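Worked Example 4.2. Consider the chain below.
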Amino acid sequence: MTHNEKLLGILAAAAFMAAAVFSASAQDEGAEAAPAEGGEAPVVEGGEAAEAPAAPVKPRPAEIMPLTAKNLLLDVYYTGERYIAVGDRGGIIAATQPSAKASDWTQVPVPVRAALTAVHFPDPKHGWAVGHDAAIVATEDGGQTWTLQHFQPDMEKPLLDVLFLDATAGYAVGAYGLFLQTSDAGKTWSEVEAPAIREEEVHFNALIKLGDGSLFIAGESGMLAASGDQGRTWSRLKSPYDSSLFGALPVGDKGAVIFGLRGNVYLSQDVRSNKWTKLETHSVASMFGGAVLPGGDLALVGLNGVILVTSPDGQVRALQTPSGTPLSSAVAVNGGLLAVGESGVQSIASLQ
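Applying the procedure from the previous section yields the following structure tokens:
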């Protein structure tokens, strides 16, 4: 299986966020292995070479590529000052305007070549991106320069989402129940103690903040979880759907819309009430990301360039991009969307 097939497995077959999950390659098909000390395998009595211990994998910086803005991108975020998109082979690009022109985006140096799956900025200057090889990179200058904070390819557990509460406290979630936290701006990362939701080792695909400040997780096998104390304790919630959920968006103070495989979208005004309404999307396209629009509507994006615009009362209308290629994430822009996916950056001027 090629690298892109691993990344696009979900885009093609409805396991999008888990595309990062099943990457067993370290550092993008060509990780550098540090040589064993001394450079040679030890020799035991009898003249036979003993098997050398596995050499640690070193991170390799992302290559600067001219067409990064038109290649696979997995997440996009507006910091308040610029747009930041992340994706394949450690690519991070930035733009000051919401443009789909590749020439308007600048690729910045990144110290890791692993595919990056998610990015978040709690303020315009401080941001974090996560991805394959449990990689975490951080910026303090609005995305112009990035440093590597966490890298553990031997885990074979990619990180799939990241959320910071402020410039120091944040969480990163991923495959097989991977759940990391920091309270010092990422200088150190540790495992979150949350047996109620981690013991099944399902994939955590999305981590968001609800309107009342509660934290909310959606994931594999209908995983739903919430924390009302800034992530210190977590509760498993009853789910209306027992297959993969790829994302969630906040609704009101306590509610959310969750979405996943084959056009399955559910709405709740209170995620802890265990009351969810299945929305009639009239689509079987899997949804992977989305954005809250001015006025409270939601725009979900997914396979085949399908866009579902959902009102807070559950009414849904479907649109489709001219390209028809899969979309993974979007931000609201001037009555439309700036979206990213298999074909890089796309601009949707209107959602009417």
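Confidence is low (pLDDT under 50) at residues 1-47. Residues 45 and 195 are 48 Å apart (CA to CA). Compare this with Example 4.1 before moving on.
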